[in-house]
Amino acid sequence: xxxxxxxxxxxxxxxxxxxxxxxxxxxxxxxxxxxxxxxxxxxxxxxxxxxxxxxxxxxxxxxxxxxxxxxxxxxxxxxxxxxxxxxxxxxxxxxxxxxxxxxxxxxxxxxxxxxxxxxxxxxxxxxxxxxxxxxxxxxxxxxxxxxxxxxxxxxxxxxxxxxxxxxxxxxxxxxxxxxxxxxxxxxxxxxxxxxxxxxxxxxxxxxxxxxxxxxxxxxxxxxxxxxxxxxxxxxxxxxxxxxxxxxxxxxxxxxxxxxxxxxxxxxxxxxxxxxxxxxxxxxxxxxxxxxxxxxxxxxxxxxxxxxxxxxxxxxxxxxxxxxxxxxxxxxxxxxxxxxxxxxxxxxxxxxxxxxxxxxxxxxxxxxxxxxxxxxxxxxxxxxxxxxxxxxxxxxxxxxxxxxxxxxxxxxxxxxxxxxxxxxxxxxxxxxxxxxxxxxxxxxxxxxxxxxxxxxxxxxxxxxxxxxxxxxxxxxxxxxxxxxxxxxxxxxxxxxxxxxxxxxxxxxxxxxxxxxxxxxxxxxxxxxxxxxxxxxxxxxxxxxxxxxxxxxxxxxxxxxxxxxxxxxxxxxxxxxxxxxxxxxxxxxxxxxxxxxxxxxxxxxxxxxxxxxxxxxxxxxxxxxxxxxxxxxxxxxxxxxxxxxxxxxxxxxxxxxxxxxxxxxxxxxxxxxxxxxxxxxxxxxxxxxxxxxxxxxxxxxxxxxxxxxxxxxxxxxxxxxxxxxxxxxxxxxxxxxxxxxx
Length: 740
Ligand SMILES: O=c1ccn([C@@H]2O[C@H](COP(=O)(O)OP(=O)(O)O[C@H]3O[C@H](CO)[C@@H](O)[C@H](O)[C@H]3O)[C@@H](O)[C@H]2O)c(=O)[nH]1
Ligand SMILES: [Mn+2]
Prior knowledge:
Layout: E1 6-10, H1 12-39, H2 44-63, E2 71-75, E3 89-95, H3 103-114, E4 123-129, H4 134-157, H5 164-169, H6 171-181, H7 184-211, H8 217-221, E5 226-230, E6 251-256, H9 267-282, E7 287-292, E8 295-297, H10 302-310, E9 319-323, E10 327-328, H11 344-353, E11 365-368, H12 369-372, H13 385-392, H14 396-407, H15 419-428, H16 452-462, E12 466-469, E13 477-479, H17 485-503, H18 519-529, H19 535-550, H20 563-583, H21 590-619, H22 637-643, H23 652-679, H24 682-698, H25 700-708, H26 717-739
Parallel strand pairs: 3-4, 3-7, 4-6, 9-12, 10-13
Antiparallel strand pairs: 1-2, 5-6, 7-11, 8-13, 9-11
């Protein structure tokens, strides 16, 4: 074999089918344009529809390259060199609010990262706590004690489920491990650990109850920096005692950067940059693993898997990051909101991998440290010290470590972090440190956005850094997905609004200069940042054809007209393509496909629409961008989600466009069919009738929520009223415009 560590496979058949499909689709679109421009001046309605079709086609076109070279990868971590030869890794984890992000879960993420199968002296774990909460700090200390028992257990039995909470909650995971070892010793050891785990859990919980007072919102926005190395020296007596035979443990550091109301804190990017600096002067590993606090390591092997690429001399010099997918532990069977983003991981991201590499998605990603320090890819010949210093800021320690790191894999790994170092770390975590430096611009994660991951990726890929996507069968990381309509919409507005905002800046992938991105890769990135604009065609298609149907105005060719075929092809094949993405490539069922269609329509009509609006008013300076954390506490919302019933308890504003579209189509469908029965021009109106019917089928849960349901998660009467009034307004407006 040519390459010992990894290999990849281009799905040639899939690619060929996709390219052929794109070609036919393109021809159909061309015909539609021809048809529309011929009839352009004849009717008012088709003019707007034509515009919507143009936007639709453009968005379709920029998405296509993602289908043209899908690749999947396999790694052989067992062939990696000996442990001494492996480079160090710093795990950087962020948390921001102990009330929305349960401390015990955050701590489980930390422990799972400490338990990665990697030499302990080459692994360091840093937690950034933006709230500066003492509960979190205390929990870290307790975690250290518990880890002193947990880590040897994981090592001894080569545990895969290295996150304690997951291990003790899922009996199958324990069984799987015991099958591997199959001995009494293991069972006893596991029971001992369970006792320690329960005690640890109680301790963290009771701490939280007594510690609530000091975690109000004020302290979270206004607190001094605090950096503390967690080890046996800072442990007070507790319910669990330290394991005297723990063996070597990874370095564990708690970092709470300084926050002051007068200083912008730049959300997660600010937190990560502080972690980058602090970790630089301590462990200074050449690689980092970025994790959200709600994403635990679900397997111990990911670090070695990532190294299979970084260590390969053929690709390592231009490889910036290795991205793993975001998978979730709280997905129900029906997954009505497509919370798992089903198609993204087996279809889109392998496609992006074939085009010089996927975007960073903020978590589950191994990034080469030097990439983030903006040291040019090509600088083999010396670094300009002065330049480095002026961009990194006044700390000499930091400059030195960065330069060292770049020269060779000289991981100065001294477990004894000196007090001088800790003092310097406080300086690096202060909120004035970045003043006058390049942090957030050319160094570290980018500021001025709420999607720091996408913006940073665009910057780095334009500089020529490549990336790799690895999607192993066993999910390496599991997180908590948003499982209520409200959470999903709030998160969606943040994502898609934030992405669109990039497109209206110099970071727009199509115009960014200078750029080393290839053309198809630019298209992939444009597709991503322009996702929100899908709402334009969907909104138009949901309103214009049905209203015209009601008033008997044809907007599509007659059924007997050959032109009908082009429209029918586009509509039907779009559905079939998506169906095949869901069923053939993502292992979903037909009902999963229906759910995805529904979710997509709901997203278009609310989060894409509002994301665009928020983006525009932010650009106009009428609104300040904020990072609204997702709620990781699963209250009674989970119940509805698990039962597969839509939970419509969200703001009226989000619901109204969705409900209006469905009510409008219902009215138009009933009225239109009545008219058809009288006038009998089926031939001319067939397309429109079918289209409205489709909207109604997809919108059925909405109709149910308005008309049939009596529970408290139904669509509120007021939302239904507003939507009905709005539909009537649209119908009257349509009447005025179309019939006069
Ligand atoms: O001021 C902040 C805000 C957020 N976070 C952390 O950022 C992470 C992501 O926040 P979350 O509420 O979980 O948002 P998600 O929408 O789930 O995050 C997704 O989207 C983000 C970009 O919008 C990416 O950064 C994330 O990696 C990606 O998982 C969490 O660990 C937070 O603690 C901070 O540390 N400081
Ligand atoms: Mn999250």
